[in-house]
Amino acid sequence: MPNYDLQFDHLRIDYLENQEVIVARLDRPKVNALDTALLQEIYVLARACHSDPPGALVVTGGERHFAAGADLKVFANPSTRQAQGDAFRLAFAALETVPCPTLAAVNGFALGGGAELAICCDFRIAGEGAVFGQPEVLLGIIPGGGATQRLARLVGVTKAKELIWSGKQLTSAEALAIGWADEIVPDSETLERAIELATGFAKGPRVAIRASKRAIDEGIQGTLAKGIDLELDLFMEVFESKDAIEGVASFFEYGPGKAKFTER
User: Fold this and answer.
1) Mean pLDDT in each 10-residue stretch from start to end of the chain (264 residues)?
2) CB 110 within 8 A of CB 134
3) Is 70 tagged catalytic?
């Protein structure tokens, strides 16, 4: 089994071996503000998942704060501002490209950098009391962790402009309505539901899931023609995998949905 016994100061790691799912909990009291050190820990975790992908990764925070945003004391200091910005870019790019399904289990406030952290995940499972927002404009600044790009791709250009220019905070129901959240559950069930979904993905054909995630995420950044080319290349590559051989053989013998996938 892979070794995910990573020790951090403000990121608690739990590897659910039976499900082959990693749960990473932000733990930087009081509001899980993202400083350079915590961002570097997220980067190290993401790179470990690149090197040895788990079945799925769940990122969560506290009951009242998923993550309240960047540590403004760091950004306010000109001598540390650039390092903080670089840490955001590196950590979020590494998390966004982890080659397995990633889910954010969001309770409480996900604001600024915290909202951007959730956007980097493939899915956002929100508690009923969760709040999403990009309030940077209220401080006279703009998002610096990718919201102008990732949020626009997630909810559309016009809606992203509205949210970023107003600094408006959305309830979980409002976030669900525009696609910022993907599912709402009672606050007490947020992490449980995220783990349930993650476990389902982890039991699936991992080679195919990794390839399709790459095709979607890389393809959408370019032209349709280049995306179709990438998809076909990956389709041909995946067809040579053990899972594909097993899946096709199982289909012919037993029909769809009966194959058991074991390739990691």
Assistant:
1) 75 93 96 95 96 96 94 84 92 97 98 97 98 96 96 97 98 98 98 98 94 96 95 94 85 79 82
2) no
3) yes
| CA–CA–CA angle 140, 145, 146 (5° rounding) | 105
Kindly name the residue from 24, 56, 68, 70 that is annotated as catalytic.
Answer: 70
Residue 69 DSSP label: -
- pTM for the model stands at 0.93
215 classed as catalytic? no
Could you give the domains of the chain?
11-202 (3.90.226.10), 206-254 (1.10.12)
Q: Six-digit token pair at 107?
A: 């309770």
User: How many CA atoms lie within 13 Å of 5's alpha carbon, on the beta-carbon side?
Assistant: 2
CA distance 106 to 62: 8
